[in-house]
Amino acid sequence: MLQEAWREGRLNDEPGILCVANPSVKGAEIYRHFVDVLKCKKFDFLIPDESHDTCTDPEGLSDFYCSALDEFFGDADKDVYVRYFHTHMQSMLSSEFNPVMGGK
C-alpha cells in the first residue's frame, strides 16, 4: 500500500523497510525478497538486540550480513540503498562523513 501511494505521488519519499538481521536465514534471500518481490529500494538490516554474552549464533549473524552484502554488491540495480552498508562504507571512504544525524 505504501509503495503504491508513493508511486501515485501521495507520499514525498519512497517508503523503506526495517529488518532485524536473523542468523538462521540467508541475508541474500531477504535482500532479493525486498528488491524483487516487494519492489523496495530503501531498507536497513538492524543488528539484533543482543550483547557479546547473549548472542547465541554470531557466525550465523555474520553469514547473514556477508550474504546480503555480496548480493548488494552484485546487484545490477544501483538505486538500492541499504543504510547499514552505506553508512559503514562511507565512514571508511571519507573522513568528512559523519553517520550521526545532524552531527558535525
From TrEMBL:
This is Uncharacterized protein. It comes from Serratia rubidaea (Serratia marinorubra).
